[in-house]
Queue: 4 jobs
Job 1
Amino acid sequence: MMKVIRLSDGRIKTDKWINRYLIRSSLYLIICLSLLLSLNGSAQARPMIVDINPRKINIDHDFKGISLLVYGARNDAGNIVIVVRGPRENQILRRKGRVLGIWTNVENIKLDDFYSYYSVSSMKPLTSVQNDMLLKNLEVGLDNIDISYGDPVSPKKLAKLKRSSIKLMKGKGLYREDDYDISFWGETLFRSFIEFPKNISKGTYDIDVYLFNDGLLHSYQTLPVIVEKVGVEAYVQDMAMQSPALYGVMCVALALVIGWLAAWFFSKRQLS
């Protein structure tokens, strides 16, 4: 099946174009990597060069999601792991239950500084890193995400709430964890596609690329991706956030005008 990618300007490119683009970019990466190693040959953590395409994502009324390409070159063995973290947000988790035989919301739980998007791609399972404490400290892996709640809860309930929160986000396509999701050319060049669904939030997304080997972090690089809303949707959202009173008045006024026009139209039809 042919792989396609949608660029930030709306253009659609096929896997054949992607391969040509990667070959040209990879040559540049190899040259830069060689120069860096020659200048810093005594460094304990050898560098890894990574780039992305596109660097900016525009959300408009026709946005249906996008595949972001992460590619690069390494000069050392190990497991490459790509983690994408969206902007943190405060959210409300609602638990449903039966009350007098009717399903309704029985509990509202506030999530503080919750990742609006989280994706993990790796060339091997995360267990191959063989350092659970390191992964936990770096928040690498869905099980290692640090989730805090507005109200204090017991450890048992905290674990249950965490599973429910992650399951909810996975159902929306906003959380994912995929092993063997990084392709290689030889031992040096690699690439991976990160899927962003249509319901992503605007803000800055951090793409962190790790190189683990023998239970240690050998190299690390981070790149930002800017997600912005454009067009009428962006204008309306900015007005609602920055001037809520004015936004409310305009909504009421628009509803009154539409109601008046509808009443006038139907009264004219009845008279005729």
Note: Residues 231-272 form one domain.
Job 2
Amino acid sequence: MEHVSQGFREQLRADPRLLAAWVGLSFAAWVAVSWVIWDGLWAVASPQLWWAASWRLAAWLVVSFWLLFQLRHRPPGFALEGRLAWSGGHGEVVSTSGETVRGPVRILWQSPLLVGVSIDDPAAGSVVLWLTQRRLGKQGWWRLQRFLILAEH
């Protein structure tokens, strides 16, 4: 029988569905803010239409550049590939490029389909990982769920 003291080790893979969900949320935020800028709360006409249009255009450009930045710099929690090791409240992730993040682990979210974990590295800062069955594989996901259940007791 497994014990929580044995820890958890598994390979992290990319999950296209998780990345697609993140991209979809980013686009939804862009559409919502674009609507507010062009037709929403600022739709009240200004005495000088060119002034209002200039501010709206500038705000929309800022939001559009934010979206481009988001799409180019995916958060590591959604896309990081490598090896995850977790034992005794401490975790370590070694990416495929060789970068290592290690430190105390906090569970941010736990559900049957998604687990959010934060590793707080004093040097690199906090890294949030979103774990799914596709990222860990079926056996890895089962081992993670078992590890979390054993860690609770």
Note: The radius of gyration is 21 Å.
Job 3
Amino acid sequence: MTSGMRVREKSIKHLIYILVILTISLCMCEDESDNEILTDDYFPLKVSYVWIYESIGFQDTICLTREVTDKIEMNGKDYFIITESYENNLDVDYDTLRKDEKNRIWKYHTGTDYLLFDFTKDEGETYRYPSYSEDFVVSIFLIDSVKTKAGNFENCLNFFFCIPIYIDSETWYVFAPGIGLVERIVGEGFSFYLTSYNF
């Protein structure tokens, strides 16, 4: 074997080594960026994401499943279809939601987008969400930690929906970063707590 062939062989081995290192580095960067987006996101939306909840304080446990079942485009915007179904019940509820560039969640209803969850607001700030008669006043509170069967979640945000002139109109939606909705507490009705999720 000539010295020229040895040099070429070493160069090829060196090039293969560099390509392997680059490929591994790129894969690691992609994984890290996916995790970074997920851990800062209070309302992760991706088709096939599933959250399972159960009620507490009733004779029979009622299980609720929320799943992102589809992604559609309307007027140049991406919307996600979230289905809600109860165990042993054929009724299924649907929400059509989109997330804007500021991570605010909008609900599509009869041709109009309504701001449902505004994650840009600071603790103590409020905004309004339309209802059939009176608007809900939505207040945001920070909760240090929330514990459910699915785990212990820190830095949670509580969205408190209330129609001031009605008694028992209150609903609390508690979100954990990287997970989404972990508690939904209703003033008059069923309250649900996260038991598991699958991303």
Note: Residues 17-38 have pLDDT under 50 and may be disordered.
Job 4
Amino acid sequence: MSNYIELIHLSSQITDEICSDFLPLNSFQLAKKLGISVRNSEDYHHDWKGKIAPVRLKNAFLMTTDDGYTIYYNESDSSYNFYIAHEIAHYLLKHNKDSIKQENDANLLALLLIAPPDRLKQMNRLSSKDIANLCKISNQLADQYYMWLIENEAYCEKQLWPKIIKSTILKNKYKYLVVILVVAIFSSVFTINHQRQLKNAEASALQPVASQTVSKEQTSIRKANSIVYITAKGKKYHLPDCRYIRDRKDVKKITLKDAIVQGYEPCEVCRPDIDQ
């Protein structure tokens, strides 16, 4: 799979220039920015009337035309915004065949395009359920994106504030520019003074703070790597003391992350998805 950080940078080059307070971002606007024509099912039947269409229109597909690139989409599918973004992702990644690897990369890039991590953070919409509802995608796909966000939380946090400030400046150039500059100067002065105070503090006073910082950054990753249990024919994952797997011989250990990626759902009895 492509490097996740590379996919973030690739998506940011496009989404950073789109000023919007709403999610998901409009895939039609993304396509227009890239010079890709987008046509619906009525256009599809008109364009290919009396001809042999290269692909049957189910969700969406990308094809080259005399004028460049065109995405045909089925507007009756409620997830069409995601499917258009998915085809845009194939275009950006220069995919030339349908493989599981390329489909997974296109799914991730599509979600980064229509639901960038910094915009989700600004709206305080970082749960798997929020992502599924916002983007109108399956719970399984939303869970995969959510687990990726958890695993890359440290990186996303480093990128968050510069992108928020940039977005604010683009939308309110003259209104907030002076305020941002004043805040930046104040922050610099505060940082210098704070660093001087830290140099004079005892090393023992710093240890609890360092411990709390490490703990906060690693909590989400530890949760993703926690052990749950599945059965050979079951579709749920369980806690070790769940009555549904007690005394069974076909019980298998698996990480929470792998269980979600493989499509397993939490048991409604032992509730392994709730912090104990």
Note: Residues 225-266 form one domain.
